[in-house]
Amino acid sequence: MEKIMIKNVCFGDYIPKVCVPIVGRNREEILGQAQLIRTESDILAKKFSGDEAINLSVIEFRADFYDEVTSCISLKKMIKEIRDIFPEKLLLFTYRSEEEGGELRHDRAEGMIADIQENAINSGNIDMVDIELMSGNYNVARLAARAHEKGVATVISYHNFDETPHDGRLERYLWTMEQLGGDILKIAVKPKNEIDVERMIDLTERAAKGKMIQNNVTKPIAIISMDELGRRTRTMGRKTGSCLTFSYVGDGSAPGQIELLDMYKELGAKLI
User: Fold this and answer.
1) How many Å separate Cα 134 from the centre of its chain?
2) pTM of the full predicted structure?
3) Annotated catalytic residue: which of 17, 89, 186, 219?
């Protein structure tokens, strides 16, 4: 597995980077949650100052919750205001589709996802963009190329809230993500039993070590088994090689996420 640098943050070094999402619907909610995250992360940074490996590295703007996401002007302004609150953090822009667990919308946003992502990329204020693999190979490759032109890293992702597909299928997804321009390759799936969780732990380790059954990948990977059943996969990156884990302050954005203080404590235990 390669190590990649996005600004001053290294991915692929067997130290999982913590990401916290912002999920507000309007400017007031978004900035209120951003300030809450800022305050909590600053407190925890002092509390855990003796361990540089435990740190909030990435802020994710979940734009599928934002009511004005279809307005290019409003969206860019919102991104800039979030950036001003977190100047030293990486800012990940995500519009999660309804098919992959995104916020249910009743406007034209679902048909504008590519345009929304391009507006974010062109804002000059994001460091990473999430692109769903299932949006189609051409769309993924085109948007990834556009992001790279603007110096924005790509997280190509696949989410399944119904099941954990078989290993061969997930290996193909990882390989395709890399071929289409993914800098970080992300999979999040729902387990039905402990066997599914163990399969994802094994897949993560094999992918990180270049020991996949099919074509190997070289880019950093982030693999999550969701819900309480898969909770431990969120804190095992030191062992498995999963480079990114998602926590929350206030409101979470996915089942099984761990509150930031608890995440810091558990990562600390894993690093001993």
Assistant:
1) 16
2) 0.94
3) 186
Contact 203, 232 (CB under 8 A): no
DSSP H stretches of helix in the chain = 27-47, 72-85, 113-122, 137-149, 167-179, 194-209, 237-240, 260-271
Q: Confidence class of residue 103 from pLDDT cuts 50, 70 and 90?
A: confident
Region 243-260: what's the mean pLDDT? 82
At 140-194, the pLDDT tens digits run: 999 999 999 999 999 999 999 999 999 999 999 999 999 999 999 999 999 999 9
C-alpha to C-alpha distance for 260 and 225, rounded to whole angstroms:
18
- 270 is annotated as an active-site residue: no
Model confidence pLDDT, tens digit, residues 205-236: 999 999 988 889 999 999 999 999 999 999 99
Q: Note if 186 is an active site residue.
A: yes
Three-state DSSP state, 165: coil
Tokens of 42: 């600053």
**Among the listed residues 16, 118, 23, the one whose alpha carbon sits nearest the alpha carbon of residue 65:** 23
Q: Is 269 helix (H, G, I), strand (E, B) or coil?
A: helix
Give the C-alpha distances (Å, rounded to integers) separating 74 from 92, 95, 153, 154.
Answer: 17, 15, 23, 23
Instruction: Check pLDDT > 70 for residue 88.
Output: yes
Which residues, in sequence order, are bridge partners of residue 259? 248
**pLDDT value at residue 203:** 97
Q: What angle do CA 226, 22, 201 make, to 5 degrees?
A: 20
Q: How far is CA 70 from CA 21, 64, 123, 142, 184, in A?
A: 20, 10, 14, 20, 26
Question: Cβ–Cβ contacts within 10 Å for residue 150, how many?
Answer: 14
Q: Which of 17, 159, 190, 219 does the annotation list as catalytic? A: 159
